[in-house]
């Protein structure tokens, strides 16, 4: 066991500050273990959200030394021997208490998205899709809703009217739906006008923090932006649609 210095943000919506704790740390411990020790030994009322302790529920996301991380997957031996470990709540969401934030805004964005709408079955009575299509949308389904990508997205951090942009987590949900060949819904007008695809300037900060290594920007957001361009701005596609008389929707619905 070695003693390690932790700075943990304590407070609530009315304000707070960092408090220092010295804690014994043993081999194999992760940051969440140490927080639990501190909670058990000296700070019984310290609030921290967690569930699985296996990197799969997304509950324990916090900022550790300024970067969003899962506390249960951040090993103590990833820090220098004399490094102070600073733990604070995700900055983008309102604080409830200590390390726990109110992430309910994200669930509201989720509800704005039109759900999967299955296409009619084929002549053989089956739904079929190619394996490459399965693989493409499977990547987006790995999301554990830790909301760390939402936390680092400067569009969500800086803008007060946050409903203008649903954020990277929901852009990949949209990508998973739009790229599913069995889905019959059209969300392109909403992606442009309601979900705010134009706000993303492809900084890739979201992709860098994703614990599931989802290529949020290159595989999700950029292809959605390309679909918006095809619909609204591609002159060849516009002429083609004019000649063929094919109608596509350009006005968004209320969501
Ligand atoms: S790439 Fe887009 S969605 Fe991701 S953090 Fe940057 S602005 Fe936000
Ligand atoms: S996309 Fe990645 S970073 Fe964003 S919520 Fe899902 S798992 Fe977390
Ligand atoms: S406790 Fe579930 S991801 Fe950390």
Task: Give me the secondary-structure category.
Answer: alpha+beta
Bound molecules: iron/sulfur cluster, FE2/S2 (inorganic) cluster
End-to-end C-alpha gap: 54 Å
Walk across the major sheet and give the strand order.
2-1-5-3-4
Provide the low-confidence segments as ranges.
none
Q: How many whole angstroms does the radius of gyration measure?
A: 22 Å
Shape: elongated
Q: How large is the count of helical segments?
A: 10
Biggest β-sheet: count, sense, barrel? 5 strands, mixed
Mean pLDDT: 95
Textual characterization of the structure:
By secondary structure, this protein is an alpha+beta fold. 35% of the residues lie in helices and 15% in strands. The chain has 10 helices and 7 strands. The strands form 2 sheets. A 5-stranded mixed sheet has the order 2-1-5-3-4. The chain has a two-stranded antiparallel sheet with strand order 6-7. Helix 6 (168-178) packs across helix 9 (216-232). It is elongated, with a radius of gyration of 22 Å. The mean pLDDT is 95.
Core attributes:
255 residues, alpha+beta, 10 helices, 15% strand, binds iron/sulfur cluster, binds FE2/S2 (inorganic) cluster
Task: Provide a brief overview of the structure.
This protein has helices at residues 31-41, 104-112, 131-140, 148-152, 154-158, 168-178, 188-193, 205-209, 216-232, 235-244, and strands spanning 2-12, 15-25, 61-64, 67-70, 85-88, 95-97, 100-101.
Secondary-structure map with pairings?
Blueprint: E1 2-12, E2 15-25, H1 31-41, E3 61-64, E4 67-70, E5 85-88, E6 95-97, E7 100-101, H2 104-112, H3 131-140, H4 148-152, H5 154-158, H6 168-178, H7 188-193, H8 205-209, H9 216-232, H10 235-244
Helix pairs in contact: 3-6, 6-9
């Amino acid at each position: 066991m070695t003693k390690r210095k932790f700075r943990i943000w304590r407070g609530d919506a009315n304000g707070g500050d960092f408090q220092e704790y010295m804690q014994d740390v043993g081999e194999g411990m992760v940051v969440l273990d140490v927080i639990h020790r501190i909670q058990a030994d000296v700070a019984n009322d310290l609030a921290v959200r967690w569930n699985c302790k296996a990197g799969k529920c997304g509950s324990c996301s916090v900022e550790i030394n300024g970067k969003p991380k899962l506390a249960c997957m951040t090993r103590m031996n990833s820090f220098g021997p004399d490094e102070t470990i600073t733990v604070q709540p995700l900055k983008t969401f309102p604080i409830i208490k200590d390390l726990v934030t109110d992430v309910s805004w994200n669930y509201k964005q989720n509800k704005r998205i039109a759900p999967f709408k299955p296409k009619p079955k084929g002549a053989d009575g089956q739904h079929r899709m190619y394996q490459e299509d399965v693989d493409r949308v499977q990547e987006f389904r790995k999301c554990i809703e830790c909301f760390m990508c939402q936390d680092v997205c400067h569009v969500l951090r800086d803008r007060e009217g946050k409903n203008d942009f649903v954020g990277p987590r929901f852009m990949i949900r949209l990508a998973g739906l739009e790229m599913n060949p069995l889905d019959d819904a059209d969300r392109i007008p909403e992606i442009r006008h309601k979900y705010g695809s134009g706000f993303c300037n492809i900084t890739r900060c979201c992709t860098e923090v994703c614990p599931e290594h989802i290529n949020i920007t290159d595989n999700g957001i950029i292809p959605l932006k390309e679909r918006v361009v095809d619909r609204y701005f591609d002159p060849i596609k516009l002429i083609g649609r004019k000649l063929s008389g094919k109608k596509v929707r350009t006005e968004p619905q209320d969501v």
